[in-house]
Design goal:
This protein has 251 residues and is α/β, with parallel strands linked by helices. The chain is built from seven helices and twelve strands. It has a single domain, classed as Spore Coat Polysaccharide Biosynthesis Protein SpsA, Chain A (Alpha-Beta Complex), CATH 3.90.550.10.
Amino acid sequence: MAASRLLVVPAAGLGSRLGAAVPKLLVPVAGVPMIDRILDLYRDQVSHVVVVVNPPSAAEVRRHLESRRERLRVDLIEQPAPTGMLDAILLAVASIEGAAGAWITWCDQVAVHPRTIERLAAHTAEEAAVPFVMPTVRRAHPYIHFARDHDGRITRVLHRREGDEMPEEGESDMGLFAMSSSVFTQWLPRFARDVEVGRATRERNFLPFIPWLARTHAIATFPCEDPMEAVGVNTPEDLRLVEQYLAERSA
């Protein structure tokens, strides 16, 4: 039986960089739509999934999910305007009732290894579990980097897209996060009340929540199984790399 967790999948992207003729979450990766891969990856760890989509995509995505005859409870929520990942996630706060915690994953992170997911579940199932847990990856020329102090606490998140000066090698997230129910329903909305929009994107980003939360709460990180897990499918080249990695992994 799946654990009593909510999985939030922000998936309001249009897939324009992929040149897709369908909503991004329906783009096939090695013949399987992204959202199907996400549902298959997490079905043993969650009891309820909320997929956040843009309004023009909602009807097509709903038809697709109905065609799956999915036993896992899956709900769609529409994000009225593309104001950022933080706002997409907040739309699901009311859906956590009865769940022990919330996991979040981007719809294009389809290469996450099942062992990484199992380790995340083990971290969040432990007695007196840390209220925020995420796998991370070390990589050269990172797109995202978590800066830490001498005690290892995350103090800042640097984002190449926002014009931050990036290190040659850094520690990045994998688009997968776990948090307790209280962090999700109380601290995330509290952060959202005062957060500033990105300098370059003009969006309300989720990742700055992590160093903000780290001021008052413990945050646990652990390394992923393989750096390729962290590749999100955003471009045709990403798609090629992920398909090759999945083929090698299943060989």
